[in-house]
Amino acid sequence: MIKRLTILLTAALTLVACSGPRPVATTPGAAATSTGGPAKGGKIVYGLSADANGFNPVTDQFAAQSYSMVTTIIEPLVSVDANGDWKPNLAESLTPNATYDEWTIKVRQGINFTDGLTLTGEIVKSNLEAQQKSPLTSATLQPLEGIELVDPMTVKVKLKQPWVVFPYYLAAQIGMMVPPSTLNNPLGGSRTPVGTGPYIFKEYVPDSRFVVTRNPHYWRDGLPYLDEIEFRILPDTQTRAQSLEAGSLDAIGTTRDEDLAKFGAAKDAYTIHRTQGMAVSEAMFMLNTEVAPMNDVRVRQAMAAAMDRKAIITTLRGGLTKEADSPWTKDSKWYAPGGAPHTYDLAKATSLVKEYEAEKGELKVEVLSTPDPNTMQTVELAQDMWRKAGIDVTIKQADQADLINRALTGNFTATIWTAFSSPDPDGEYIWLHQAYAKPIGAISLNFSRVKDDELSKALDVGRMNPDESARKQAYATVQKRLRDLVPYIFIDHLDTGAIITKSKLRGIGEQLLPDGEKGLPLTGSPIPYHPFSQLWVNGQ
Amino acid sequence: MIAGRLLRLVVVLLVVTFLSYALLSLLPGDTVTQILGPGASEEARAQLRSELGLDDPLLVRYGVWLGDLVTGDFGTSFVSRLPVAEELAARLPVTIELLVAAQLVALGLAVPMGITAARNAGRWIDQTLTTLSFALLSTPVFVSGVLLILVFAVKWQLLPATGWTPISLDLGWNITSVVLPALTLAFAQVAVYARLLRTDLIATLQEDYITLARARGLSPRRILWRHALRPSAITLITAIGLNLGALIGGAVIVETLFGLPGIGRLIVDSIFSRDYLTVQGGVVLISAGYVLINFAVDLVYAAVDPRIRRA
Q: What predicted TM-score, i.e. pTM, was given to this entire model?
């Protein structure tokens, strides 16, 4: 028997050895130099944590992982530079009128879709009109009044109100340009994306892989460098990391601190790129300010004061993240200091709980959590902290779909949450403004249902006032009101969202925008994404 | 007999599909939010809900779905907007290959183990194989999968850790991409099959006709392979059919772990995204497959043991 098994095993291994290179996806190394300069050629396999629903920016909801795949083919009108400022991309310029309620968008000359059509003002107009009608984005584009074609390469966007940072919205899904064929056949465009990007669609096997090849007619000279990219969909974080170790992948996205520690220790073999600045999302507990007992600010303050963030970071994040007391990181120009009530103070928390209970009876709170072990650990640790302050906390599990629906309809008291990674604070407008806070049972994009004139007016100033110092002052007010009202108990800035690559894969975080500025290295959360046109493989 | 079986299949499908439809409807969460995201307006949600027929009562929705199913229409996925039948057809070969490979691996390991253990009942080799069986049985699929990846892909770099290559693209790479998933899925089955075969074989080897065969001077090998193994395999064959359900359950985990685009992963993704029609399509496929395979198993009994055929 052992002899037969040995023969079988030998045959299997011989088969493996004789199989030749894996079809579609290989990592044979680039036709590159080893001198450090970008070189053309090579193929990479890139591990993603989730598949996309589809690739049509008008009809399919994009998560961060979708952007990794889609932006290789479809590009936005606008990009964000390394300072967090918007810069033209497919657009040559975006110019506001004096009152910022009109934006004139001029399109660059000579940009072609891979189906041969040239990008024109008419196509930009059609795309923006489709986005305005799309159920995915119509709420965000609510201030948009209409779009006019000024000349063949220029459109004018008319707004119902001043919107000083409107171009930022064109750096994401809303500003991604597809040809008329996609607009006319949304399902076709959803499965077979066409764009102006550095790569051309080659193959898509749902839940398995998405393959793109170099666009030889890309409008940016000399780009892209790689011949082919295979995105492999691997939801399990551990096998994704193991695949990188085993050599099956050249890069992975992760949020696990153990991956950062493990691959960080092998600096010669791997490079870690972590999110920074406004791209970093925040972990928090979101409180429903409309339901008891959270409608009493003392309860919210007590829960915030009982939260020992250092303990969470040390215990669960490997000490890698930083404490948060605001939606924006401390290295952002929008951050305004002022930790209270997000400073750990158990005595204060206990006192507030006693005050509440003397007036209203025993304090009981139900906290929602998704069932994944990492999230549950955070909630359980917080539960223990709140119990020390005298709050009776129970945990209820809800999967992601249930949790989001409960947040929308207000069917929750408190929940673990991750949010706030827009490049500009105005990106958080609909989540914080009282105009978007609806009664319990109705769909409310302001999930915490916090209603505050001062907060909302500050958000309006941030949206409508072009003066940066006025905007900074406005967002300082936003942060102050969030700290006073405590609709969110901020835990930490989740900068463990990272891309880990083999060291031979270069170019992440080094991309230049069309007009020469350095681009924003990583965007999105929890696992970030980045452009692929300037990635290259160093010679071996 | 066949008509009776088919009738039973129809009843099973009706019960299973109604229960799964009802259970999915009870799940909290909202299909429309999954499709449009949290940033969509209430008007857009209401419109899409109406378009998808989600405002209708459960029985009406089930009736419409069943009516379409009878005409061969599995419906259209809420999320991908593709026909469910098309989605299932694309995934089915992967899962079938995985299940068949896992069964072959399981039987390939279990039969020699069961025979060896039975022939050496009570001796050290039997006890060693019994211990090994229990170790395999008690190891969860996600643990054995990760361990196999660690050994064969990370340490020895013999096999790919993840990924899938269809047979149509390259047979060699297809086999390499199915080895670790099939081994992972097969491990728990190996233990069950080996234990069943060992027990039945020990009982058969104590039958009078085996004693008679020995008395007639037949070689132990001939007795084992010609006279003892076939009647001892009945329970094993039953288990193969019944284990299909467990295998499909394991396939869900294995497909996620190894990044295989199979039916199990499609169903799990569809449950999370509340894509009810895709889940229903998967349920129909698995239920029908389960009943049909067990029907085939009944037919195999007769071929294996002539006493059943005569009865």
A: 0.85
